[in-house]
Amino acid sequence: MARLNDFMVRADLTPMVEYCREFGVPAVYEKGEAFVTEGSVCRYVGLVLSGYFKYSMLDTSGNERISGFGFENEIITDFVRSVQFGQPAWTSIVAGCRSEILRVPLPDLLDYLAEHNPIYIANVSKHVLAEAYSRSLMMLKLSPLERYQALYPRLVDVIDMIPIQELASFFGISRRQFQRIRSSK
Fold it and tell me: pTM score, two decimals?
C-alpha cells in the first residue's frame, strides 16, 4: 500500500497500530463524514482498515485544500495540534469514500504510550516535523511537475481511488494543470 506519509515509514508506529488492533472499536465513515472537524480537538486515533481519509481545510475563499491523506493500515489523528498540545485541529480529517477504521480514545492511547515508552510521542514528533518541513520546502523549491514526479511513486497504489480535484489540491495546483501533468507522463 502507498506510503505517501513518509514519517509512517521512518517512525515506528507499531505500538499505536497494535494498540488500535487490540482495543479499537470498529467504526464506519461514509464519504464526506468527518473523523474530526477543523476547530475541534481530535478525541480519537484511528487505524484505517479500508478506504481513505483526507486532511483538509478551507482557504480564505472557501475552497477545500488538501494537506494529506491517510490510507489502509495507517494511523489517522490530528497529531500535531491535538495529540501534542490538546488544542483544536487546523484541519478536518474526512472520509474520502466509505471507510472502516478501528478507533480508540486519544487519552487512553496516550496513557498507554506514556507508561510503556515515555519518549515515544517525542520520537514520532521528530519524524512528523521532518516531513512537514520537507513538504513545505518542496512546495517552494520544486515546480508542480517536479513535485508530481517526486511524489508519484508513493501514490502509485492509490492514485486511481483519489478524485483528481483532491490530488490537484494536494499538489497545490489547479485540476486542469494536474490533468496536463498527469497526461504528459
Answer: 0.87
